[in-house]
Amino acid sequence: MQPWFEDGNIILVPQEEARSSEPSKSEKPPVGFRVHRGVLSRHSEILRDMFELPQPNAIHDNDSEISRYEGCQVIVMYDIPIELSNLVKALYDGVTFHNRSVDDFFYLAGILRLSTKYFITHLRTQAIKHLTQTWSYDLKGHDTMLDLAIRTPQLSYSPDLDAPSNKLSYPYIHPIHVLNLARSTNVRIVVPSALYFLSLYPLADLIRADHPKLQITHPSKPSSSLQPSDLVNYTLMFQKRIDGILDFIKTVVGQRTSSPACTNGSGRICMRSFQRLSTRLATSWVVRTGPFNFIGQAMTQVSQDTENFCAACREKFALDVGAYREKFWGELPAVCGLPAWEVMKEEELS
């Protein structure tokens, strides 16, 4: 497994390999990574200190211990082999994250875990920034993600390409995986967005954990179980989402007065049109409705309806809806017991 530099001076052996391998007497030791001690040490004080400690767990070949190989110190690492391999290559070559498939998320998950574990700040920050491109901290990012999810075709992940149950929709990963990865790496800025999307799933489905996105197997896959503390947060976010829809229908639409500049029958026609819209909205949403998309669609309907709404009322409604959506988005972190978006952005992305 790569990397293996012939001029390297230290060999990292992942825990699973160290436990199960039977090294040859004349060839390589168990699968590991031959790298340069100085390169890794300059990126992480944790790694540098590890390399200076005596190794408590030697690798055994019959009755002998392998603590050195071809003059290189052998270090046992308590990490998943593929994640350690990706981390080391990232330290040498840099890292580029994508969101083309579920495997791209698992690659990021491994980098984020180990960069957090070994205090490699630049890789951790890059991973968090990429996560926020999908699980956004601002409303514009949320809208972009939702639009992309609607437009992106489903992606097959099984050899059986015709099996509908084996097709993944964008962003290919289940929000519970994002949430559990964030919890395990102490990343807070993606938690409200992940919980918001998680609240669109019925609780019974989450408990069964039988969604195709949760059935994927991979060494880097986070837990597929909703943790007890996040069950509370899920419930609060579920209620917040429903409250937002009902409040919007009642206050922003149903109790609306016409604009002072209304030119449509002294305001009476526009007011009646808003009341009819309120009635339609009240009967069109379902438990899994996302409020931001729902509210945005209402704004689009009004802006395009030149017959029932005058220009002044359409413009005022658009402004009020935009403000409502921004305010509602700004309240999501508090639902999870977290500080404001800007505080988390400053702490984790700067």
Break the fold down into its secondary structure elements and pairings:
Blueprint: E1 10-14, H1 15-20, E2 33-35, H2 37-43, H3 45-52, E3 59-61, E4 64-66, E5 68-69, E6 72-77, H4 81-93, H5 102-117, H6 121-134, H7 139-151, E7 155-156, E8 167-168, H8 175-184, H9 191-198, H10 203-208, H11 212-215, H12 228-254, H13 268-284, H14 291-304, H15 311-330, H16 332-335, H17 341-349
Parallel strand pairs: 1-6
Antiparallel strand pairs: 1-2, 3-4, 5-6, 7-8
Helix pairs in contact: 2-3, 4-5, 5-6, 8-9, 12-13, 14-15
CA(first)-CA(last) distance: 34 Å
Q: Strand arrangement, largest sheet?
A: 2-1-6-5
Q: What is the percent of helical residues?
A: 55-70%
Please report the number of helical segments. Answer: 17
Mean pLDDT: 90
Computed Rg: 26 Å
- Sequence of secondary-structure elements: EHEHHEEEEHHHHEEHHHHHHHHHH
Beta-strand content bin: 5-15%
Which oligomeric form is depicted? single chain
Uncertain residue segments: 17-29, 159-164
Secondary structure category: alpha+beta
InterPro entries: SKP1/BTB/POZ_sf
Protein name: BTB domain-containing protein
Organism: Lentinula detonsa
